[in-house]
Amino acid sequence: MFIVGLTGGIASGKSTVARRLVDHGAVHVDADAISREVVEPSTSGLEAVAAEFGAGVLADDGSLDRAALGAIVFADPDARGRLEAIVHPRVHARTAELIAAAEAADPAAVVVYDVPLLVEARRELQFDLIVVCEAPVETRISRLLTHRGMPRAEAERRISAQASDDERRAVADVVIDTSGSLQHTLDQVDALWADLSARAQDRARVS
């Protein structure tokens, strides 16, 4: 098995890169999706969040009211820390389950762990390779305006709130430049896959 950490800022093309790797046969583990899964109705995660922050963070149907919770935690670092103490261990446990299942199904699997906060995730997971998707800020702003209808001020705020390109490059083994054509991006991913699959096969043979 070969574990790849995939990251990139908002509108950096990370989803396009992940889809292409999955098309080639990679197992996609999405940290954002898992973080939602662990606080779905009837989970211990949601029960713990409600116990910590009160019934006001629950919607009428019993699901998590993300806007209400966000209003609490984004303005209060201490509250955010308490939320992370509930969610992160559950995300890590679920991630470990999915990775173990992928390896059991195929010892030569390439697992792509898609995680925005990759630097933090590195404390919990040992990646074999870290891939960073990158495009100039102005390109990313244009994508947010065009594809998501986001106001420019909001696009700029979201980008500035995330790690910088330099911070991501500092942990990158491979940088995928998504600023050109779609085909240019896919060509880079195809070349990356050829390397990843070969390394995963070699590792499976050795073990």
UniProtKB/TrEMBL annotation:
EC supergroup of this enzyme: transferase
Alphabetical list of InterPro entries matching this protein: Depp_CoAkinase, P-loop_NTPase
Cited PROSITE patterns: DPCK (PS51219)
Catalyzed chemical reaction(s): 3'-dephospho-CoA + ATP = ADP + CoA + H(+)
Entry keyword set: ATP-binding, Coenzyme A biosynthesis, Cytoplasm, Kinase, Nucleotide-binding, Transferase
GO cellular component: a single term: cytoplasm
Pathway where it operates: Cofactor biosynthesis; coenzyme A biosynthesis; CoA from (R)-pantothenate: step 5/5
GO terms classed as biological process: coenzyme A biosynthetic process
A GO term, aspect molecular function: ATP binding
Protein family according to the UniProt entry: Belongs to the CoaE family.
Function: Catalyzes the phosphorylation of the 3'-hydroxyl group of dephosphocoenzyme A to form coenzyme A.
Protein's recorded name: Dephospho-CoA kinase
Species annotation: Agreia pratensis
